[in-house]
Amino acid sequence: MQSEMFQQELLWGVAAWRLALAVFLVFIGFMVRKLIHALFKGALFRTTKKTENRWDDELVALMPAPLGAVVVVMLWQLAARMLQLPDEPVGVRLYLFQGLQVALIAAICWCGLRLVDVVSNALARLSKGTESRLDDQLIPLLRKTIKVAVVTVVAIMVIQNLGYSVTSLVASLGVGGLALALAAKDTIANVFGSLVVFTDRPFHVGDWVEVAGIEGTVEEVGFRTTQIRRFDKSGVTVPNSTFSSNPIVNHSRRSIRRIKMTLGLSYQTSAAQMRGFLEKVRELIRNHPDIDQGFNFVYLTEFGDSSLALQIYCFTKSTVWTDFLAAREDLMLSIIDLVEEHGLEIAFPTRTLYLREEVWEGEGSPENPGLAGFPGERPA
After folding, report:
1. Is residue 380 very low, low, confident or very high in pLDDT (cuts 50, 70, 90)?
2. What residues does each domain of the chain span?
3. Nearest to residue 203, comparing CAs of 130, 134, 142, 148?
4. Number of DSSP helices (H) and strands (E) in the chain, helices first
5. Arch. (CATH architecture) of 254-380
6. Spatial contact of 82 and 100, defined as CB atoms under 8 Å apart
């Protein structure tokens, strides 16, 4: 009696025992998935924590989900085979197996992408210990390239699995290749721009750059765009074609930083006072601990409209922005002290007007200047 009940055909002519076994395999798939998560989060996690490496910690953290998906789909495929579904009148068997095959390929692709993340993160940590910063730029780009390649291969496998011809698909794409190239000309220009960045190396990740009115720190260089973090902490995505058509200013590559200022002293300053003051300022720059001694000068350069103009030109040893501001501030305050010590005065824009009273002679009046004679001074 029990044997006949198990042999009884249910949905789509499937025997009861096969349906029960398929349901059991589906249940086992979920249980195995939970077991994989428990294994990775438990014993393997405690084991990897004892090592000094970080890649094994990332592997244990990233791999449970895709591995669990692979096992579940494989067990589901076995369950589908146990059902022996019919192909007529509807191709249920074909559609089910194609769907499960696509799901398995996607799960394996998920595993591959996670492995790429683990390897690229390990390489990124190694690159931080090298003197060259080119590898810091290449590793994110390499990670994206490998991921695109993996996804492309998986997409081709899925297309073939669904019964489509990849060769005919490529041939059909070739017909519209010209239109596609014209539509993607900006993308192609950006790719060539990235080649300029990697071959000429005008900057590296972490450099302070200025290009096309955008100024900030380079965070990431990709195939198509470069991420720059401005000093107001907003992010800017710059197309790489910008770097091939615009001048690039790399502020991080200067070894010293310039101080250039103009100081105006009043015209009450005598020649002797000016000579003594100039010499004191030059001595101040020579003895300043934060000023580079490679090149500097202090000269009286111009008889201005309101002042005697002095030009002060020097460089700080540090290129760090805050250190530069501190050195320039200290130099300016010291110059103010010298001005006060010499009894001089820093000039400001002034204008003096001289008024002369005049009288009109001859016919006419001031109200009718067209009839007036030559002006002359009013007699005392």
Report:
1. very low
2. 2-175, 183-252, 254-380
3. 134
4. 13, 10
5. 2-Layer Sandwich (3.30)
6. no
CB atoms within 10 A of CB 296: 16
Weakest-pLDDT range from 78-87, 138-147, 261-270, 290-299: 78-87
- Sign, CA torsion 256/257/262/263: negative
Residue 215, SS3 per DSSP: strand
User: Which H or E run contains 267?
Assistant: none
CATH class of 183-252: mainly beta
Residue 319 and residue 257: Cα distance in Å, rounded? 5
pLDDT of residue 310: 96
- Reported as type and span, the H/E element at residue 180 is helix 177-183
Can you give the length of the chain in residues?
Answer: 380
Q: For strands 257-265 and 235-239, give the pairing.
A: unpaired
Of residues 371, 15, 209, 14, the one with CA closest to residue 6: 15
Look at the pTM and tell me if it is higher than 0.85. no
